[in-house]
Amino acid sequence: MDSGIKVTLSDEPEITTRTNTLKILENAQRDREYYGLDDYFIVDVDAHHVETDSWAEVVEHIPNPVIRDYGRQLIKYVPDATKSALTNGMPGLRFQDAGARIPHQASLAEDVPPSGTHRDVTLIRRAVEAMSLNYQVVFPQPMLEAGLHPVPNIAVQLNLAYNEWFVKTILDKDPAIKTMMGLPFQDPEASLETIRRYHDHPDVLGFLITSQRNIPVHHNRYMPVYAELERLGMPIGFHAGPTWGDTMTSTMNRFLSVHAMSFVTCNMTHMTNWIINGIPERFPGLKTIWIESGLAWLPFMAQRLDHEYILRTSDAPLLTKLPSEYMRDMFYTSQPLEMTDLTLLKSTFDVIDAPNTLLYSSDWPHWDFDLPAQILRLDFLTDKEKRNILGGNAQKVFGTKKIPDTSKGQKRPG
Known about the structure:
Blueprint: H1 21-24, H2 26-34, E1 43-48, H3 55-59, H4 65-77, H5 119-130, E2 135-139, H6 152-171, E3 177-182, H7 188-198, E4 204-210, H8 223-232, E5 236-239, H9 255-276, H10 279-282, E6 288-291, H11 297-311, H12 323-327, E7 331-333, H13 342-352, H14 354-357, E8 358-359, H15 373-376, H16 383-398
Helix pairs in contact: 7-8, 9-11
């Protein structure tokens, strides 16, 4: 594998947006030898690239000619719109690009020598190499905020444009790169068209709903979307994100507070609606994944929903078992793995049957990313359970056809 540039790892006084990925992930490369990572099948189910570095290209794929021209004009005439035209990013959320251990997500500005390979592909390859991954499931970054866009049609158009650009430019350029395709969820018909267009792409593992949104995911207009996903055997994921603008976070004065709460409460809301309105009963074959919310909230949800359901079963007539039992049938990504109290973490693993439901994720290149060794350090897991979480459960969700085990004899696929 050619990651574009060879790096001699040595001490540096500061990590910046220009620091090479292999340098930032130096500890991961040490883990490779210490833990024998090449002997593990590892699927990173949540990582990101910076689509705004190529935003002018994305805008050119907007289907609607009027909105496309609007985007072009913003890029041409508005200062700093080159990376943000038509988007709805909230300024305060950029605090996560500073004041933390890794500023890399602010801009992946490291050197990438000119070649016929898109720079994003090279950067993804570097992360895959450094973390000793077999596959990395890659999502956008600012596009994940589109669910709160004030103009739904623009959000739909941006989603369609990004998907087309990503498939043409990034997705099939390296066999290690996979994705769950984002749905233009403001428009159920456009979501159905997206599913039908991309479901059979070998590198599309499923479809994604960005969790920061005001649309109820249990609304009847989305039932054809879920039915189509179930029919095609494609999982659905809910990817959490931050907001500083809802009734709770608007009272907060620190990004730490917003990050701690809003990444969780959005998925708590969707999960509650999902279960109590009987979506798992209506679509029992639809696999559901909850992404980038950590795990600490799940025991609370299991106990709270069970308690309320037992007292008011008439409010959830479609349910045939306790809410917590539906939760044990769902899947969860590991990042950020809350490890300040391993006794609580083990109890959380027990609540969700983590050896069979948890999917390793790094969330690279965000400031709070987790390396594969985070799973290997958990002494309360057996080797088989660790292997399940690092890659085996991902095969259970996405299928061995789309992510075959390539750990034997050769780490990287292809």
